[in-house]
From TrEMBL:
Protein name: Metal-binding protein
Pfam families xref list: PpoB2 (PF09948)
Entry-linked InterPro entries: PpoB2-like (IPR018688)
Domain of life per record: Bacteria
The UniProt record lists the keyword Iron: no
Keyword annotations: Membrane, Transmembrane, Transmembrane helix
Length: 275
């Protein structure tokens, strides 16, 4: 009898450890693949700059000869989606793992598949945002081509955008959405642990919505400075991960905000010839 009881206690724990190793391995592979693709794209297209950059941003925001608007938008959305996997997965993975544990505790037969479905819904929302970003970028680039003065003011506008994004890090709005994106503060809401595909999709979309709103300032910084700038992507990705995973998320967000404000002031100084 004691041996049977011991087997019942050990098997779930060993199964959970195996599931944890598989989850970590898959997450690491996804991150490595998306990071490698993003790096390859950034090296292959050095002229793909951000919204507020003057000059050679046409490779990203307008069709090249022989390409259509649909093809250009599709290419950008695919690149954007892969980039977001590389940037967001380190902070999303702990959330998905906790969701899987909740499903497992609820007796779900396939918690891994449902947590993967939640992750797909999360990144689907980021891909949809990529379509909006491309539309705005194309409109902005068209305006630059028709108004050369707008292009001249673009570097200073970039600094102002970064400055405003840094100030946003100190607000209650940021803190509220950040609390929904931190694994330490994660709580299953009503219906979250329902073992169904529909509930998993809803959960992933809810996580994506909070994440997009929480990252609005830092994402805008990335667009302003350079969408395919590896240094900007790395710094923004580190900032997002730090404020979500480190103890004291609000304090980490404020440190990121202070650094962002400093970067904005430096950009403005360079654009106006003061730095």
């Amino acid at each position: 009898m004691p041996q049977r009881l011991l087997a019942k206690q050990v098997t779930p724990r060993s199964s959970e450890r195996a599931a944890g190793r598989a989850f970590l391995g898959i997450s690491a592979l996804l991150f490595a693949a998306s990071a490698a693709l993003t790096l390859a794209w950034s090296r292959a297209a050095p002229g793909m700059h951000g919204l507020a950059m003057s000059g050679g941003g046409s490779m990203m925001w307008t069709p090249m000869p022989g390409r259509t608007w649909l093809g250009t938008a599709t290419s950008f959305t695919g690149m954007w989606s892969v980039m977001m996997v590389a940037m967001m997965l380190p902070s999303l993975a702990p959330m998905l793992w906790r969701y899987r544990l909740i499903l497992d505790a609820a007796g779900t037969r396939h918690p891994g598949w449902l947590s993967a479905l939640a992750g797909l819904a999360y990144f689907f929302l980021w891909a949809a945002l990529g379509v909006i970003v491309f539309t705005l970028g194309a409109l902005f680039k068209t305006a630059q081509m028709h108004a050369p003065a707008l292009a001249q003011w673009a570097p200073a506008a970039s600094g102002l955008i970064v400055l405003a994004a840094g100030a946003l890090q100190f607000g209650a709005w940021k803190a509220r959405h950040l609390a929904c994106c931190r694994p330490a503060a994660y709580r299953a809401r009503a219906g979250t642990a329902v073992p169904s595909a529909r509930a998993a999709v809803r959960h992933g979309l809810r996580l994506g919505r909070h994440c997009i709103l929480c990252c609005a300032g830092l994402t805008t910084c990335l667009l302003a400075v350079g969408v395919m700038d590896v240094r900007a992507m790395t710094l923004v990705g580190i900032g997002i991960t730090a404020e979500r995973l480190l103890p004291g998320g609000t304090s980490a967000a404020r440190v990121v905000g202070a650094a962002t404000i400093s970067a904005g002031l430096l950009l403005i100084a360079r654009a106006t010839g003061l730095g």
